[in-house]
Every structure is written in structure tokens, then in C-alpha cells.
Amino acid sequence: MKRLVILGAGTGGTMMANHLRDKLPQSNWEINIIDERTEHHYQPGYLFLPFDIYIPEDITKPVADFIPNGVRWVNDAIELIDPKEQLIHLGSGDRLHYDILIVATGCRIAPEEVEGMKGAEWQKSVFDFYTFEGALALRNHLRNWKGGRLLVHITEMPIKCPVAPLEFAFLADHYFKEKGMRDQVEIVYVTPLSGAFTKPTAAATLGHLLESKDIKIESDFAIAEVDNERKVIVDYGGRELSFDLLVTVPTNKGSDVIEKSGLGDDLNYIPTNKATLQSKAYSNIFVIGDASDVPTSKAGSVAHFEADILTENIIRFINSEPLQEEFDGHANCFVETGGGKALLIDFNYTHEPVEGTFPFPGVGPLRLLKENRMNHMGKMAFRWIYWNMLLKGTPIPFVSTKMQEAGKNFVQA
Predict the structure, then answer these.
(1) What's the pLDDT tens digit per position in 30-55?
(2) Same domain, 194 and 129
(3) pTM of the prediction?
């Protein structure tokens, strides 16, 4: 009996467990998935918690609800990966041997990487919304906040869901308008990039949206310090921005276990073949989702598209066949813009987000890079799709793994 082990029961790991249980004969392959958590979080929902759009029960369910029959869930901490001996060391002291390993350990925020970020003002006037605890604390703060200068800040790239900070700024604009206090709040979007987004065409569209909502942008800001006493953030050139409320996206890093195991780069992301999703260092290790260093968005849609390619490549690896070099970096993201509207972006390694229609060429019904009500409905419907289809490995109708070129006004990235 051979053993396939999946590290992490988040989005990528859970999808792979569901995909592979149907593909690998139980008489030959034992599948284990390891995670110390008992609660699965719909992480895109963190964005909506601070604004009382979602409540905690909307975005949390038991991990066990999504582990398929025939897959063994090991509810334990992952202490170390020993790739030479093909062993996983667990928090309980047990060790688990693997023949094939899938790493789906995701990424985490690391506010300690910036001096003072996790200082005296942490969860008082300095908050994140990339964790459940941070989003909930921010919700409680916003309910009673009287206004002032709000900085929506990104520390450095890459980050999980790169459009989320923009969405937060847009939703904050709408939230304060609904509370009748928008004139009491100055919103400033602070980014290390030279524009609103990583891709030029989308950056222009999103920049115009920021301007239309009277959200100022401070670009090329490489943060060096959060001064808690003076309530200012300082960049490496000495530029200072004051705040009454700082909502920050700290440095994102891969799991600590990747660093301890010597498998990662400087940010603990695993060097991964961007087309096959195989580790560059070990042929029997594969990586999905935020744990890899592939040059595309760290987003749930990417893990969804990767899962299809990775499933096929696991089968090919078992059968000693050449791996498919098929993953094109496809990412598909709704961008909530407030007021019951959103826009949609669709891109990959070689093509940036552009205008067009999705999923049907010339028909839609969704419009790319256009703010409208239909895209908002798609954004809000995705939570049901996530719980009921995506995690369970059920194909989403009309959404292809590879990005389709038809219906889009493409510009080479």
C-alpha cells in the first residue's frame, strides 16, 4: 500500500483530497490529509466581516464536513517535512511516511516583519483583515469609530488576493456613506506599487475608481516602521503618513514549517515549476495554492484551476508518464466596489486583465473590467459555490481551467 499525504486542509488541500479520492484506487493508495485546525474558513469572507455584511457563521464550517470518505484526516500539527526520508514529523511525536506529498500549507500574515506594526496600537488603531481574528476585531472597532484619517495599506507583494485591499477601500467608502459620516473620513490607499494594481490596464481602471470615490492614493510607499506613539507610518525614504486608523496588509509569508524544513525561499514559498506544479527540488513533492512561488495571484480561484492540472499530473507521475505543462497562471477575481456593484478580472501568466465578456464570448452575462450589479451578484454567489462545489471538487459550469481568449480584448502582458 502506497501513501499520498496532503499537508493542509484549506482550499487547495481539501480540493485535492476530493479530486484524488475518486482517481486513486483505495486498494493501492492510502490518502492522508494533515491539519491541526478543526474549522474551515471561507477566507474571501474576511473582507465582509468588518462591514457587518457577513457574520462569523457565514464563513466557518467544520473541516470534517469536506474531507471525503476514504481519506484519513490527521488532526495534528505539522512540525517538520523530511524530504530525504520522505517523512512528516507531527506535533504528537508521530511520524508519517509518504510516497507522494502535496503541500497546501498556504500563507500567513507576518506583522512582526515591520518594526512597530505589532506594537502598542495593534488591534487598537492598527488592524489587519487577513485573519479571522483581525477582521472581527476591526468590525467591533468600526461600529463605534467616529471618523478621521483611514489608511488602507499594503506592506509588500506578493499578498493573498491582491485585489482585497482595494475592495476594502471601496467598501469602506460605501460603509461610511451609509452611516452618514463619509465627510468625516479621509480614506488613503497606500501601496508599494506605482499604481493601484500590478497590471497596467486594470491599474488604470481601478485608479479611476479610487479617484471617483475620493480615495487618495499614495504609491511607491515602502514601509520601514509604524510609529505607535505618533500614529504615523514611515517609509525607507523618510516619508511619513499619519493615521487615526491603519488597516494594513502585513508581509505575507509561507508556513513556518516550510522554513524549518529548508524547502522555501526568503518568504517561505516553495520553488515550484509554474507549469506542472511539481517542486523544483524533489520530484515526488507537488505544491498547490499559496504555498508555491508561481508568479500568479495567491487566490482561491488559482488553487481551483491548479487542482485540475495537478490531479492529472499526480496520475501521470504515478504512471511514470511525462507531466503536463498545462497550468497557465489563470486567475479569475471579482472586485467588490461598493454600492452593490463589482467588476471582474480574468488573466494569466501572459495576458493582463482586459475588457470583454465572461464566460461566453460576446454574450457574458458578466463584463470584464466593468463595474456593474451582475458582477456583484457573482461575487456574492461565490460563497455558495465555494462550500457546495469548489471544495468538493465539483466542476463549475462554463468556467475552464485555462483562460479563454475568445471574447476578450487582449493585450500582451
Answers:
(1) 999 999 999 999 999 999 999 999 99
(2) yes
(3) 0.95
